[in-house]
Amino acid sequence: MSLTEAKTATAIRPAVRRRGRSGRAAHSRLSRRRRRAGILLSLPALALVVALIGIPVGQAVYYSMTQWNGITATWIGPSVYTALFKDPIFWRVVENNALLLLAVPFAIGIPLVIAALLNEHVRGWRFFRSVYFLPTAISWVVIGMFAQRFFAATGVLNNLLSHVGFGASATDMLAGEHSALVALAITFIWSMVGTNTIIFLTGMATLDPTLTEAARVDGLSRTQIFFRVTLPLLTRFIQFSFVITVISAFSALFSLIFVMTSGGPGFGTTTLEFFIYQAGFQQVQFGTAALYGVVLFVIMAIAGLVQLRLIKPDDGGGW
Amino acid sequence: MAQIELESVTKEFPDGTTAVSSLDLAVGDGELLVLVGPSGCGKTTALRMVAGLEDVTSGTISIDGRPVNDVEPRHRDIAMVFQSYALYPHLSVYDNMAFSLKYRRAAKAEIRQRVAEAARILELEPYLQRKPRQLSGGQRQRVAMGRAIVRQPRAFLMDEPLSNLDAKLRVQMRAEIAQLQRSLGTTTIYVTHDQTEAMTLGTRVAVISGGVLQQVAAPQELYRRPANLFVAGFIGSPPMNLIDARLERGGAAGDDAGPVVVFGPHRLAIPPEVVAAHPAFERYLGEAIVLGIRPEHLHDAAIAGGPVIKLPVRLREELGSEVQVHGAIGTAAHVSADAADDLRSLATIVARMDPRTKIAEGETAEIAVDTAELQFFDPASGDSILA
Ligand SMILES: Nc1ncnc2c1ncn2[C@@H]1O[C@H](COP(=O)(O)OP(=O)(O)O)[C@@H](O)[C@H]1O
Ligand SMILES: [Mg+2]
């Protein structure tokens, strides 16, 4: 609303300037009235945002500086933050989150390749499209249960390994701190493939097919066309899938972790998100949970701002 | 530079549509051949097969004598200008033009020099750093041309490159393309649905209808000697008047006068030299035929001589350089299946007359006919009797 408002205003300004004094006066009266209407019309939305986001965030920040067991809250103050940043377990958890970020390139790259292949409309591409999308339609809990069976000591993975003669390398991936995080990352990537493949397929469907044809006539191989024509034109879609993949990595894995590892072994698979749950519902320290929540919120906000900057169209050079 | 040859090339799409049917065409080295036909007649499909973007169902396409049916587009060394221009939206004008050379491993200096040259010819120098969306339609069209010419390919394929431009720009660009093609001397196949464009551009013009080749000839030849009813009706604007008529022996029975063509109340004697040149006339005596008269072969009898027919004038249109007179012929015009709502169904014919004519609406005008220029077609096959 206010954006369109602003655009209209800049668009008509030069014309107004040429019209002279009386024109300008009329314009400013009009624009004042318009501005008032704009504010008035956006009030309900503003109220909703404050009620649903502003107040809870404020509360979270307040409670993060208290000791609160759900009934009585004791004020402690900002010192909780300095204490938190000195806590090695907190840093361990943040490190887990950072390591999960390493899964993001795979969660985007693999679907890109799959989408590119499906987009060639190979025989049965509709069937494969449904198959790849299937994980998206399955609850994280179910995925977690499958993944647990898959990676367990007597699970599918080890069965497969021993069948092809690699029985000696069989391990219980969920039992090691680092291997458990890898297993979690792999499960996460697998479950993101469907969503991202669909995003990229949609993106590819929006591309003008004559562009690829022009490139074919211009002398490019299929691989060159993918990297030099298709990929650059999919920038928006890749940025979008990057955003939702990062958000999922940080805030959608709770049920997966809960079912697969419960955050263990040790703190091996405890992410900030899971940490909140542990503090709040296992240790009944809602103040600490709120504290972690605020940290996660700040990290996500920063990530969001960075992405907003990335997505902002460049000055006339974009397309 | 190259010769392109199509030998009974057929394209059938998986859904059963036969877009191109047994097409034979030979494009000479350096020639500009125009493919013209109504929308949906298979022009684009034919061109895409030459480019390699569409598989050939049967038949052979050769470039310089070498069959290329199974050659990838990128190995055919052919440049194509798409109807939508297909400019890469993420690249600048310069990069769009340099794009193909980069992947053909041309030296940097060479690329810069060729793009600069093309930009100079096409007057694109001020826009080299812009993105396609910052250009006008005409400028985009030039970039598409530039992208083709920097490659110095063996042949150009152009699919209705001017159809997205306004009329004035189209005429200007048409002339520039003709000039450019002549100075580069690159073999070119040019596709259009616009018969005026086809006539002005082509050294030879191939007329296609329903995926079938109708006639290939120089523009004048197409105009003066259309091979069949389709070409007769398609080439020329306003189109040739086509009238259902009969050929009869002239004079009284037993008299050995030459054949006359009869339509409605009108009788026109066919000049003896025309009959002499075309013995086929004998076979059609007493038969139905379709008579074709170009509008410019009908004159005001007060200004020009010749056998006269009298027609009630329905409409007089002033065009400045000429006057178009619509006259009722008192009989059915020939109506082809695909032109039912055309002027011809109104049983009127159009004459393009000297602007000095005084013929007015409502009167019955005396119209002189250039009988030497009449065309005759077999109503069943549609083929010209004069062929
Ligand atoms: N991919 C396709 N699948 C099925 N039919 C097609 C396809 N492309 C074109 N056609 C059909 O082939 C015929 C010729 O199309 P086209 O070559 O585009 O005609 P033009 O360029 O002369 O307008 C049309 O009837 C069109 O509907
Ligand atoms: Mg076409």
Instruction: Give the averaged pLDDT of chain B, no decimals.
Output: 89
If helices are DSSP runs of H or I spanning 4 or more residues, what is the number of helices of chain B? 10
Radius of gyration of chain A equals: 26 Å
Q: Tell me, what's the shape of chain A?
A: flat
Number of domains of chain A: 2
Tell me how many strands of chain B there are.
20
Oligomeric state of the chains in view: heterodimer
Mean pLDDT across the residues of chain A is 80
Structural class of chain A: mainly alpha
Largest interface: A-B, 22 and 26 residues
- The name CATH uses for the topology of the largest domain in chain A is MetI-like fold
Give the % helix of chain A. over 70%
Bound small molecules, deduplicated: adenosine-5'-diphosphate, magnesium ion
The CATH architecture of the largest domain in chain A can be named as Orthogonal Bundle
Write the H/E string of chain B, N to C: EEEHEEEHHHEHEHEEHHEEEHHEEEEEEE
- Helix-strand pattern of chain A: HHEEHHHHHHHHHHHHH
Q: Catalogue the unreliable spans of chain A.
A: 1-20, 314-319
Determine the N-to-C terminus distance of chain A: 24 Å
Could you name the CATH class of the largest domain in chain A? Answer: Mainly Alpha
Query: How large a portion of the residues of chain B is in β-strands, by DSSP E?
Result: 25-35%
